[in-house]
Each structure stands twice: as C-alpha cells, then as structure tokens.
Design goal:
Blueprint (H helix, E strand, L loop, with lengths): L27 E12 L2 E12 L3 E5 L6 H8 L7 E6 L6 E2 L10 E4 L11 H12 L4 H14 L6 H4 L7 H12 L6 E5 L7 H18 L2 E5 L3 H7 L2 E6 L4 E6 L1 H7 L2 H7 L7
Parallel strand pairs: 3-8, 3-9, 6-7, 7-8
Antiparallel strand pairs: 1-2, 1-4, 4-5, 9-10
Helix pairs in contact: 2-3, 2-5, 3-5, 8-9
This protein binds adenosine-5'-triphosphate (ATP).
Length: 275
C-alpha cells in the first residue's frame, strides 16, 4: 500500500444503469428526529434530533458506552427505534430508514465488526453488491471493484485476488471501505475506522476520508475516539453526553473545543478544561 496509490482518479462513472444524479452540496440527506436509544432495557440516549448533509463529515463522539455505535446502527436501519424516526430525505423524498423501502443503496457501511467474507476473495467481496443491486456484467463488475480498491489506496492488482485474511488490518479496513463504496452511496457510515491501527496507517485513512469528501462528495458519518482524526476530518461533531443521556453539542469541532459546554471541552481537550 503506497501513499502514491491514494492518488488514483476518483470517478469511473456510477455503477449500474439509471443511477440518479448525486445530491447537491449541503442538501439534507438524512433527518434524525427525537430518536431514543435503548439497550438491555435501559435508556442510553433520548431526544436526538439532527440532520446529515450532503458532502459533510459528521463525527459522533462521547464517552465509552454512551451509545455511539447504537446510534449508527439505528441510522443505517440495522436497529429499529422504540422512539423517534430516521428518514432519508435526499432529493425531496421521505423514506423511513426502518420502513418498507429503506435506502439500502444510498448508505454505505463499513463497521468495526463488518469484516469481509472470509470464504471469498477481496474482489468477490467487492463485486457482491453489484451482483445484488445492478445489471452490470462480470467484466464491468470487476472493473468497478478494481477501481474502488485503487480509490481506497489498494491499487496493487494482486489485492483483488487476495484472501481477506492475508491483508493487514489497515488494508482490510480500506477494502471494507472500498466495498461500502461499490454502489457510490451519497452517505458512508464508518464505525471507528482507525481503531487498532498505527498512527501512520490511521493518518492515511484520514486522508482517504478527506478525499472521499472533497473529490467524490461523499457524506461521511464517523464514530471515533481519535481526537487527531476528528480534528483532521470532521466538519461537525455531535456529542452524546453519557450523563445527560442526550446530545449536548453539535457544531464544528474547533469551535466546540474552545466554546462548547464543559463536558465537551473536557473531552476535546483530552481531559483538561481550559479556563
Ligand atoms: N444488544 C445489547 N444488549 C445489551 N446491551 C447492549 C447491547 N448493545 C449495546 N449494549 C450496551 O449499550 C451501551 C452502549 O453501547 P454502544 O456500543 O452503542 O456504545 P459506544 O458509545 O459505541 O461505546 P464504545 O465507545 O465503548 O464503543 C453499552 O453499555 C453496551 O454494553
């Protein structure tokens, strides 16, 4: 994996036929309204209301156990809320993420535990969404998969045929991101992409996130504990307070670090609350 490979061209056309044009900058893609999160019979969060805009990086932060991953699972439709709604609103439509016609193609997901299928090669893993959701033939599917691997910084042609278990942790994360991008979703959800990576590999992932945002226009919702990564990539930060059990701040990270509520400033200043 060379840094130069990160410089692959970013567009190979949208896969599949009849794909809609991408959303406009700053358009609201998703609306979360009065959402409550529960686990094991107890309330983790209540009254979560915010939107996700086209082309932004929105980081979800808060102390361990506050419900960040649970929120992400609600946002992608993997978990159904007891209270509140998550609605896909891009292009003037209003589709309940938990309804009969969920926006599956529109939301790419690369989760910590969302490993690649070990019984398939990396390339086969990537081509699977195209088999399910498009009418592309095999040669076109392979072309798209190789393109997305290069986009994710895995330009070595051997990676396509490699078994997932033969890749390093950082490469597997990139391959999972490449797979999440196969249908060119306007929104990509990442759960702790830097977890377990060394600082250099983590910084390269930050670069990839920035390029996806800037050059492809993908909106990214990111759960992260890594403050360096947060300040490097996030446009806005949603802070879930573990004590108040609700979001107590939403805004640009640097602004919240200096002027946010005490708990947010403490979190963003590594435990120190500046006077
Ligand atoms: N299926 C479940 N059953 C019972 N409890 C659960 C379940 N899923 C999550 N929890 C609990 O809910 C709380 C929130 O979990 P979640 O993973 O969303 O938090 P988090 O903020 O992402 O934490 P971390 O930063 O440690 O990853 C935790 O206390 C967890 O143990």
């Amino acid at each position: 994996m060379s840094p130069a490979s990160d410089q692959a061209p970013l567009h190979a056309g949208r896969p599949g036929s009849g794909a809609a044009p991408g959303p406009q900058a700053h358009e609201v893609l998703m609306r979360v309204d009065n959402l409550g999160l529960h686990a094991g019979g107890r309330e983790l969060q209540h009254g979560l209301t915010f939107d996700v805009r086209a082309g932004e990086v929105l980081a979800i932060c808060g102390a361990s156990g506050c419900g960040k991953s649970t929120l992400l699972r609600h946002m992608i439709g993997l978990q159904t809320p007891e209270v509140g709604t998550v609605t896909w609103v891009a292009g003037g439509e209003a589709r309940d993420v938990h309804g009969d016609d969920p926006p599956r193609r529109e939301i790419g997901v690369a989760f910590q535990a969302g490993a690649l299928w070990s019984s398939m090669s990396v390339g086969e893993n990537l081509m699977l969404p195209l088999e399910l959701y498009t009418d592309l033939d095999e040669a076109q599917r392979e072309q798209q998969a190789r393109f997305k691997l290069a986009l994710a910084g895995l330009a070595d042609p051997a990676t396509f045929d490699a078994e997932p278990s033969s890749l390093s942790g950082g490469m597997r994360k990139r391959a999972a991101i490449a797979r999440a991008l196969m249908l060119d979703p306007p929104l990509l959800c990442l759960d702790e992409p830097s977890a377990g990576l060394d600082p250099l590999t983590s910084a390269r992932l930050d670069d990839l996130i920035k390029r996806l945002k800037t050059d492809v226009g993908t909106a990214i919702v990111l759960v992260t504990h890594e403050l360096d990564s947060l300040f490097a990539v996030a446009d806005r930060l949603l802070f879930l307070d573990v004590q108040a059990r609700t979001a107590t701040a939403l805004g640009p990270p640097a602004e919240l670090r200096d002027h946010g509520p005490d708990a947010v400033r403490e979190f963003l200043n590594r435990g120190e609350v500046p006077a």
